[in-house]
């Protein structure tokens, strides 16, 4: 492992350059105008991996954006690890808030700044670089490794299930590793053992057939913006609980042991709050902040719009108003069921003066890892070897639908070994990647492959 | 008066042609690219009036678009009437919805179609044509008449107050007539005796310093969109009453006589509702639809925006959310006072997890005519002579700030004698003018001048 580790040190600068080159491709999966960029993005990754001596490397087309698959089967008798990542990125608006342009990666303060640097191109490259270090120094990997990098994670991984079903035998593995999460704090190696799920919908409230003069008609017809506001307001009670009937019915209650484990983490609530810039903590009554964001379901408006939004004043009763509403889900909530509950309730809340349309956009199921499986100890050891610090179990409030999908499909434990930072602006302007973490991440991945080579197949 | 009436009949076609010629000038006051058109528009009107033998006709420049002023002082000892109109027009978007181009006036179905045909060029020409009929048949007008036609009505009459102050003595009159409103229904002569005022503000709710990942942070900080929705929802109670403390304190309660008069109008609520396209009537409990839109104050969101509004899904806690909120006011509410009440209440409704900023945009005071003044009977008689039908008193839910301004400045009664139709699309595509109404409007104006000549100065 010394050769491998030295190789990673020696090629540190080039690894950074190569990541920057890839980040320049604006791979925004949600925007139809970037379809060609998505293809170029996948092609770029395929070419990069092709230079690392895989048995196979392929671009897998889907109904949407393509995925990239590669495999190294140089270790007969050794376990097979399936590594998952994604090559698509979030949209960039509001663009004016970026200090440097999102697709012109810049290095400042020991960080790389740009869209996708940490979510998830940087984390994909951590594995590519670890693979390279073995291949170049040892001629082969110590385990069998399969890499699947999808192009639709930021839009709900809609075609991933089908892709996995169609390629089930090629994706078969003993363990799964997902690198798309953040560490608990700066330099604290963390294994994520829980993810929230997601339910995302768009609701539109329509009133008049067109915008009306608010003088001539104001007071006589329902105003869709006011109505939508009232409907949204009724989705929470004064304790911050979601009021949608049935919403909490299947929620797994946190055990006393789980609450104790969460409470034992070195969580600095003041610092966390400062990182958001919000003036105060807020949330469901009766739970700590970590419990709220990791293990309690939520309902949030991600966007709202309707009527006149320009400069100045326009006196209209808007014809319609819309909102994007999403719920973060916890075991054992199911996205489709929650979607139906929320949609029904929204329709029930609407007064006769409007019509309501609800469009289900996408969902993802929550995940909780079987932490008593021995591979979690193996992963902890690898992480600790790279960082020189104890590894903690954490959860993540976000969603990676793939994790639950592959966990259910394979029945294999899924290691969530993430190298992001909690305040890295993953879905916001000025996304950044800590370059020291990037470097130690490459080493952690290498140690993981090494540690896994010493245990049997699962 | 027979000569005058016959002249109006004989020149009917030419009056229509002359209006069409003027309508061709695209006098959109809100669009800086039409500054030259605004000047040409004023010049066109000035030249038209100059041919009608005025003592004076002038273009009055302002900081914005020019006004046109003319006066006929041929009737010593007779009262002076000040007629107000405006020569600017609304924007035309969405252009594709126009059946014929907005500035190429077309005649179909007994109507002229084009931008400004009724709001307000047609109504200005009604007076110009009535003046012409007297001048050509009687060599003079039966009263003294002053005509002020401003160029900024559609953008808030920002420079009108200053213009009026600077020319107070030249604008002095016994009575004021504004022709910029609509009739109650097809062929029902209507005097508008009440206008609502306006208070317009913008509120912004800020939470995190930037958009946050709704997975990592959702549940832990206040979401500005949800908070704004909750604040807006709390501005009305379940009976549709505005909950802002003090909001109704100065509202003039409708008298039993006023309610009876409103109830006696041939109002077709089904037709009114159908014209909006809304699925149901909605509004403040305890009042009829006409009472609600004419004589009760309202609070409406004219626009709302925040967070992600694009195609697809973006899972964020938005950094901020904003809404444009306006109130229609009735006597004796004052815009500045209502602004302070609404702003204070909005700030009070905000939870600790957000900050709130309120920006006051503009306002206008409500108007209620002194209908017991004898000039209203005079105006009714004139209208009835032209249309052969009884004249009704109506109100208008919209605002014409000039009316209250001139009423307060002069202390004189203001006659709102409008010739539009309620469904004339004044601020929408396919604006139209009923040509029969245009013709009878010219006669009504002539009869008004004649009737006023028989009473004393006010």
DSSP strand count of chain A: 18
In CATH, the homologous superfamily of the largest domain in chain A goes by the name: Zn peptidases
CATH class of the largest domain in chain A: Alpha Beta
Largest sheet of chain A: 9 strands, mixed
> How many domains, in number, for the residues of chain A?
2
Oligomeric organization of the protein chains: homodimer
Estimated radius of gyration of chain A = 23 Å
Class derived from helix and strand content of chain A:
alpha+beta
Ends distance of chain A: 24 Å
What's the shape of chain A?
globular
Q: Percent of residues of chain A in beta strands? A: 15-25%
Please tell me about this protein's structure.
- Two copies of one chain form a homodimer.
- In chain A, strands 1, 2, 3, 6, 7, 8, 15, 16 and 17 form a nine-stranded mixed β-sheet that branches. A four-stranded antiparallel β-sheet of chain A has the order 11-13-9-14.
- Chain A contains 15 helices and 18 strands.
- Chain A is α+β, with helices and mostly antiparallel strands and 458 residues long.
- Chain A has two domains: 2-195 and 366-452, 3-Layer(aba) Sandwich (Aminopeptidase), CATH 3.40.630.10; 197-261 and 299-361, Alpha-Beta Plaits, CATH 3.30.70.360.
- In chain A, β4 and β5 (111-113) form a beta hairpin.
- The model of chain A has no long low-confidence stretch (mean pLDDT 94).
- In chain A, α1 (2-10) packs across α4, α2 (12-23) crosses α4 (121-138) and α4 (121-138) crosses α15.
- At the A-B interface, β10, α7, α8, α10 and α11 of A face β10, α7, α8, α10 and α11 of B.
